[in-house]
Amino acid sequence: MIEYKGEMKMEITEKILEFFKKEKKVKELDIDTDLFAAGYVNSLFALQAVLFLEKAFKIKIPRKEINKENFSSVRKMADLVERIKG
Amino acid sequence: MAREEKIKCLVFDLDGTVWHGVLSEGGGSELRPHVRELIKTLDSRGIIMSIASKNDGEAALAHLESFGLGEYFLCPNISWQPKSESIKAIAEELGIKLGSIAFIDDNEFERDEVSFALPDVRVYDAAEIGEISERPEFNPVFITEDAKHRREMYIADIGRKKAEQSYAGSADEFLLTLGMHLELAPVTEDDLKRVYELTVRTHQLNSTGYTYDYDELRALIGSENHIFLIASLRDRYGDSGKVGLLLIEKGEKYRIKLLIVSCRVMSRGIGTALLTCAIRLAAYDGKKLEAEFKETEHNRIMYITYKMAGFDEISEKDDELLLEYAENDMPNYANYLDVDEIKEK
After folding, report:
1. B334 touches chain A (CB under 8 A)
2. Environment class of residue B340 by beta-carbon count within 10 Å: exposed (0-12), middle (13-18) or buried (19+)?
3. What ipTM was predicted for this assembly?
4. Which of B205, B277, B304, B327 to mutate to test the interface with A (most CBs of A within 10 A)?
5. What gap in Å lies between CA B102 and CA B120, rounded to an integer?
6. Which of B94, B162, B229, B279 could form a disulfide with B246 if both were Cys (CB 3.0 to 4.6 A apart)?
């Protein structure tokens, strides 16, 4: 069960990473890079990220979870998705 | 659902609605009465028109052209799919929500199909075509300069959207190619009709949904205690007109009462730019910045815009939230926007 969850998490992370690499045209991106600080993400793009996560993972992100912190790295976004998917 | 909400786009059926008879069976030689008049009237009011017709696309469009009416219809959807699907596609292409769309058809089956699949769309029988322009939902309170050019603006939008879809780079890079210029200026007497129109037309990108009557708006222009700005946008595809509003109440803190961005320019960073402006104005004055936010069915995007611009929720009462800018920096405008910022009123 735990293993299964770990696998799912990897898939989620991979999918988000691919989205950012594709959108931002970067070859390498660390999942812990602070996307705001690195200048990869501005507030308009963060908005697109919210919509992307909701569509890609068929979730609705609750109001309280929408903040810069949760979207500041690929890892944090994956954590968020996992938390919502339960 | 408030049915007095104004119609932004009327979708026409063709056979038996725009012209007599069925084009593919040799009909269509004459327009039905009132049709030309209705089209011209709605166009002058800034109401967009489109087509959902089961027909051969090329022949039908050429036939409309022969009546000199081709240019009035945007995003015509002529195919054999259910009309509800056509209307959905039109709504998406134009960026107009279904509740602001109307459909007119002589065929009861088609009307029922649309009503059933898309209950928000208002449906009219072609027999009513003579009276439609009298109905309140087809009568904007004011006809503004922006309304007169609305069709051209939508055409520019469609060009932009096509360019975006075929653009190979990232979303930000695409915005850079637009060469957008945003001007922020104090609202003047001449802007009042457009200001009013924006407050009643905008649902998705409206932070509070407050509406003000004409006199209240006029009073805000002269007010010492408010900053009231209107945003105009143009780019290489054309002039998008006046697309945003920002109303700040000046007190111990600065408080945003109204932030509105026309849905036509969604995803071009205008909401964020207006927030950046508000943050900068408050900082120039050494004040903290708060924002009122009232959650509605449609304005979630605006909430996300606030949060991603660095605002935190500080209190909540019923559906009314108070947000506060939580960072201390002085943000700059995005690099894809060239902004003319008005510092002093």
Report:
1. yes
2. exposed
3. 0.87
4. B304
5. 9
6. B229
